[in-house]
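User: Predict the structure for this protein chain, please.
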Amino acid sequence: MNRKIAACAAIMPAALVPSLSPAQEKGGVERPNVIIILADDLGYGDLGCYGARNVVTPNVDTVASRGTRFVNAYATASVSTPSRYSLLTGQYAWRRNDTDIAVGDAGMIIRPEQYTMADLFKNAGYSTAAFGKWHLGLGDKGGEQDWNAPLPSGLGDIGFDYSYIMAATGDRVPCVFIENGKVADWDPSAPIEVSYKKPFEGEPLAKDHPELLYNLKSTPGIGHNQAIVNGIGRIGYMKGGGRALWKDENIADSITVHALKFIEENKDRPFFIYLATNDVHVPRFPHERFRGRSGMGLRGDAIVEFDWMVGAVTRELDRLGLADNTILIITSDNGPVLEDGYMDDAANLLNGHDPAGNLRGNKYGVYEAGARVPAIVRWPGKVTEGAISEALVSHVDLFSSFGVLLGGRMPRGGAPDSRNSLSAWMGRDPSGREYVIEQANNRTLSVRTRDWKYVEPSDGPAEYSWAPGSETGYMKVPQLFNLKTDPREKVNVAADNPDVLRMMREILDKERGER
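Assistant: Here is the predicted structure, written as structure tokens:
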């Protein structure tokens, strides 16, 4: 098939989609390498192959032209920690009460006794690794970590052979990389102290010393105004770090270099890589070689930086002759947000670009743009080139789908909400799930079927103070939208469709175990 076929080609008829063999349907035939590249806050409309304006993403678009692009793919939540938790565990985060947005010194949210996606691959003989943003806690208990010694529990306890990660996010302390459970390049002359309760005496705070914010200014009154690291205000208090402190402009390079090294070192055995970038999460401060490339300021330039990372990975796979035997998935943890704690002028510099891709909503909220995310799957010879799939798919199902592919045995209670959707993710099933469940920041749940979207009633603000201009969509009345006729979720038709409303409510009741 022509490898130059356009990424935005017409939807591929099912008869032309490469079929999985009967043995592949049962799983365990092949052991392809698997790389999940997970962007951060990248919107449904932020990539060229999804119709982006003013920002060019040639590397991602090339992957799409050689794979299948999904237009109805969902993260399980419109915020980071619960979304990532569900992807790696196959369990909806709302089933637990400790999976909301994690502070920087949170204890491990994924517990060592849980069976993870990394465990699945490790038990199938894979080398496993995690790179970049973690935001799922480290150590046994929150607030009690000793960052100057090996952590007693970490990613090695949940299936990862190697890890080079950020403890939380770029806007939270500690601002150091953690390599295999220890602070990378730890500086004994500058021992690290972290607190989310009180500042350290003598350490300047961003709210008091805005003149020290030489790289990026915090938005007044938002909260990213505590510790100062690399001329940028953070959430939380930190002291020390020395040479271990990251420079934000080098984060993408650091993550990428370590990931490429792992690929090189494991080229002769199957590997699984969870590559979670920091782009395009705040604080957006890409390397200077990307600045000015988008014409949309730092947020647009961070998208360009993300595209560069994708290109670096694909070129390395090509160089090592691994591309044909590697499943590459590109997606995002949740939808976009513009103003989010820093004065980077993201909203004013869009110049016609729509990060939500003509969907309603954003990160944190209940509407489609919060959890419907870009998703591209490339596996040469197995996944149709240049196809667009309308299948309804969810991140939560990747776990079980890989399990079927590998012929893995799931322990009792493992990945409880994950369902085998291998045929859909491989582009063979044009329909996918009957419904997906979405979770908002305040734990409001939504159900989306092929034609309908239901949002349960909830209390909450119209927007969050730290993300001015965002729309949460929280209402005290049920909301129902006919996505077939109203894809922008403009008209609440709950009162006119009592039978549909009842059906959607029953789906949530069943999932919650109330019936």
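Residues 14-168+271-435 form a domain with the Alkaline Phosphatase, subunit A fold (CATH 3.40.720.10).
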